[in-house]
Amino acid sequence: MKPTRLTDSVNCAIQGILYAVKTQRHMRNHFLAALLILAAVLFLRVSSLEFTLLAISVSFVLFAELINTAIELCVDLVSPDYHPIAKAAKDVAAGAVLVAAIGAAVMGYLILSRYIFPFYKEALGMIGTPTEMGTLVAILCVVITVVMFKACLGKGTPLEGGTVSGHAAFAFAIVTVVSLTTQDPISSLLTLSLAIMVCHSRITLGFHTFREVLFGAMVGTLLTLTVLVIFMRLQ
Fold it and tell me: Fewer Cβ within 10 Å of end Cβ, the chain: N or C?
């Protein structure tokens, strides 16, 4: 029955949101991102206009995800079997969410970067700039550590599989070196994006699990940072 009272309509809307959160992993991720942005807004004390723009961007992403969920449910109801048009409808709806998310990411970057980047540069400046010798030793230490993990645990090959992802370790070692060398947030973000792509490819190809890739990223980052700091302190 169609709700006749305002409270009934609101309850139906809330039930729809809860259903999307319970059944859609991306919806939960969007809400988590919204909480992180809210925490950043409170900590960084952005202006009222900037907060309004961020709120609109976040709301638009959540709105797009809700519409995407509704479209998927309708398509599944009308066409439970596979049909190319049903697939196209779902893909277009997912594309709408992607466009909204990209727009929100750009908006968040333009607003929050001018608050976060100065702290980031200051933190990198406190660590210092790595030397060429320190960089070489750090990269070699990461490679040797990954090989030792794979040899001792007897899982995987030097290039495929294993308890720790060598590709992830090497990629995040490079991210650490580039970040400390340039002390430029843009360079850090670009190299981090490439490292994440490398990690995602290892999971997609089935060579590693998420845990193995995460372990590799931690090994690459922490070991590289430790070696570089030691070398800089010995200078």
Answer: N
